[in-house]
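Deliverable D4.2, example record:
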Amino acid sequence: MKAAVFSDTHHNNQPMLEAVRRCRPDLLIHLGDHDRDALELAHAFPELPLYSVCGNCDMAPIAPLADIVPLGEVKALICHGHSYGVDLGLDRLAYAARERGCAVAMFGHTHQATQRMIGGVQLINPGAAGRGHRLTWALVETLPNGGIAVSINEC
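Output generated by the structure prediction step:
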């Protein structure tokens, strides 16, 4: 299973839409700022399952603050990250994911693409797909052995 993961689109949706057309994922994830941008994904790709959460810039959010997403046999906690203080560190997010039985946690907010392991939880930030000097997104693939592969891609 291939999931295309986006964050911090800030109403600049064209790079995100083009990335989905290129990679042809099985699943879409939008990590907030702006959660209504996920509606454009749903409209453009109605055949693909879509999970989204709101971010700190969403004034009247339509998406939840966090959610659990099945990636094959792997469960992922998705959030924007601001409510877990990700700009100060990732331990709280890793702990929250582990408490919910998730092997993966995906977040945005910092506009910095990153991938690291903390406490047995794979933490993934796809970076910013809509605003910044380098627009990025993540492709997360589940592997037959139950693991995951992550690539950070430019829009």
